[in-house]
Design a protein that fits this description.
The protein is α+β, with helices and mostly antiparallel strands. The chain folds into two domains: 96 residues, 2-Layer Sandwich (Alpha-Beta Plaits), CATH 3.30.70; 93 residues, Alpha-L RNA-binding motif (Alpha-Beta Plaits, 2-Layer Sandwich), CATH 3.30.70.1560. It has three helices and eleven strands. Strands 1, 2, 3, 4, 7, 8, 9, 10 and 11 form a nine-stranded mixed beta sheet that branches. Strands 5-6 form a two-stranded antiparallel ribbon. A hairpin with an 8-residue loop joins strand 2 and strand 3. The chain starts with a strand and ends in a 14-residue tail after the last strand.
């Protein structure tokens, strides 16, 4: 049986084991020889990273044609109106081409930890939390999508990839999960704390 490692990647940590310049890598959180990241998060994004030693599992979790939904809690500047949300749902034209349609809904503030440093605060500009689901994973895609509709992302936390959930893991915490060889994303593997 293979295993996956579910990690809550903290803010300002790279989605790789080695450090780069002033930014620390995942080696500051854990040691996992032979494992690689299945789907990156920007250093200024937080939340669920899945580490695997199996290239087939990595491909199943990351390739858009496999249609794995990735879910994010996204705090944006302002109060998005229905037309902005509908543009996200239909797909947008970004500089690197059109995005696939996203699933988007306004949500109450999710159960997230305090962030260090905190997001910028502006007394006269409210913020809104969105739950955004996408099947792609282009560089800074969600940040570019929300900016395209006039609502820059202030905070982004990935909380689910396929059937794998962040659960109650706090920043820097991780959990090892056994996965059967015949692993498919259709199986209902539910990870909670």
């Amino acid at each position: 049986m293979d295993s996956l490692i579910l990690v809550n990647k903290p803010m300002n940590v790279l989605s790789q084991f080695s450090a780069e310049g002033q930014k620390v890598g995942l080696s500051s959180v854990l040691s996992a020889p032979g494992y690689r990241v299945a789907g990156r998060l920007d250093s200024d994004s937080e939340g669920l990273l899945i580490l695997t030693s199996d290239g087939r599992i990595q491909a199943r979790l990351t390739q858009p044609k496999k249609q794995v939904w990735k879910q994010y809690w996204v705090q944006v500047e302002g109060l998005p109106e229905s037309h902005a949300l509908e543009r996200l749902r239909r797909g947008l034209l970004l500089k690197d081409g059109p995005t696939l349609p996203a699933r988007v809904e306004i949500i109450s503030p999710p159960p997230v930890w305090d962030r260090s440093p905190p997001i910028r605060y502006r007394a006269n500009i409210p913020t809104t939390w969105l739950n955004i689901q996408i099947q792609e994973g282009r560089n800074r895609q969600i940040r570019r999508m929300t900016a395209c509709v006039g609502h820059p992302t202030l905070r982004l936390v990935r909380h689910r990839v396929g059937d794998f959930e962040l659960g109650l893991l706090q920043p820097g915490e991780y959990r090892v999960v056994e996965v059967p060889r015949e692993f498919t994303l259709k199986s209902r593997v539910r990870i909670t704390s």
